[in-house]
Automatic annotation (TrEMBL):
Pfam families: Ldh_1_C, Ldh_1_N. One of its GO terms (molecular function) is L-malate dehydrogenase (NAD+) activity. Keywords: Coiled coil, NAD, Oxidoreductase, Tricarboxylic acid cycle. The keyword RNA-binding does not apply. This is Malate dehydrogenase. Residues 339-366 form a coiled coil. Substrate binds at R129, R135, N168, R199. It catalyses: (S)-malate + NAD(+) = oxaloacetate + NADH + H(+). Its EC number is 1.1.1.37. InterPro entries: L-lactate/malate_DH, Lactate/malate_DH_C, Lactate/malate_DH_N, Lactate_DH/Glyco_Ohase_4_C, Malate_DH_AS, Malate_DH_NAD-dep_euk, Malate_DH_type2, NAD(P)-bd_dom_sf. One of its GO terms (biological process) is tricarboxylic acid cycle. Belongs to the LDH/MDH superfamily. MDH type 2 family. Residues 43-189 form the Lactate/malate dehydrogenase N-terminal domain.
Amino acid sequence: MNMETVPWELIQKCVVVLISVSLFWKIIKYMCGLLKVEKEPVTVLVTGAAGQIGYALAPMIARGVMLGPDQPVILHLLDIEPASESLKGVKMELVDAAFPLLKGVVATTDVVEACKDVNVAVMLGGFPRKEGMERKDVMSKNVSIYKAQASALEQHAAEDCKVLVVANPANTNALILKEYAPSIPEKNITCLTRLDHNRALGQISERLSVHVGDVKNVIIWGNHSSTQYPDVNHATVTTNSGNKSVRAAVNDDNWLNNEFISIIQQRGAAIIKARKLSSALSAASAACDHVHDWLLGTPKGTWVSMGVYCDGSYGIQPGLIYSFPVTCENGQWKIVQGLEIDKVSREKMENTAQELIEEKELAKSCLN
Ligand SMILES: NC(=O)C1=CN([C@@H]2O[C@H](COP(=O)(O)OP(=O)(O)OC[C@H]3O[C@@H](n4cnc5c(N)ncnc54)[C@H](O)[C@@H]3O)[C@@H](O)[C@H]2O)C=CC1
Ligand SMILES: O=C([O-])CC(=O)C(=O)O
């Protein structure tokens, strides 16, 4: 090879360009690293944190299941004195799990310390029902807890704190909390019916042998109790040939109108019968889904069920905490309007509203 014909000048230029590009790229990556600002932590209160749902829920929150994989969290765990050792153990395990998103854990039996500056409050604290009881049978013990904790939240939580009541009777506990914390906006106080919603999705997916993610827009109307109305009239399933209504896909109205409804209404009792304990992992997961969708939004074209303060939508008496189909955007829920309601559905929606009206009266009498 004749060395004189080698284009040394060109090779030299190429090497310089390559070195410059790689240097430039390194600088950009370094700058991005410097600019990567970690989000401020969100403080999440879990009451009844030493209980069985608490034990399933705390690690889910610490892993980002509730608020997203890039959202640091601080956990405030509240329980009562007899459970304080167990609560301490939960905190020890959270430390041992070394969750990257978990920026602090406060485990306390002091309600004021627990409520201080919380952005999200998940209220599990209370007495669960046992086999053979209805959820309203735990009314007197639990509503007095919600009355007391309402004022602590009102006085010490962050402005715009979002509250999810899980403890039963969930709708009525949430209503009591709302009434005794008048300065918390009513749109910030909700109760969990997402577990019932997810149970309905699960049953339809099993029946049709499709993935649960392909079923959407079931509705839980009313109370988180055996009078709730799981409604599939607007639900759809995604199939190979496009979207189909659940009624058409199941093609068995008798099953949908009877057995399906009763399975969902009685699912909590069936879990208690099988486990001798009430639902915990599914309740924790549903609580994460509820808060996640509320704060981060529901996917386009999809609604979820939430127990929310009723404004009279669908002719339901205003002033109850009633489960409706909702969509969420920018941290706000909105009741889905304009769905056609047939006569059978109307009756079931009224029936569960009636139970909530009675529970409200019973709760008031327990507090007098
Ligand atoms: N809405 C829903 O979909 C569901 C609701 N639930 C309800 O959630 C609640 C919690 O269930 P579990 O964790 O299984 O019960 P659990 O009995 O295992 O835990 C409840 C915890 O609350 C604590 N507690 C009692 N009084 C308290 C107070 N004043 N302040 C703070 N903590 C207090 C207890 O010491 C206990 O550690 C129950 O009311 C249960 O019926 C359960 C499943 C689903
Ligand atoms: O049934 C219970 O008492 C617990 C609960 O609310 C549920 O699993 O839906």
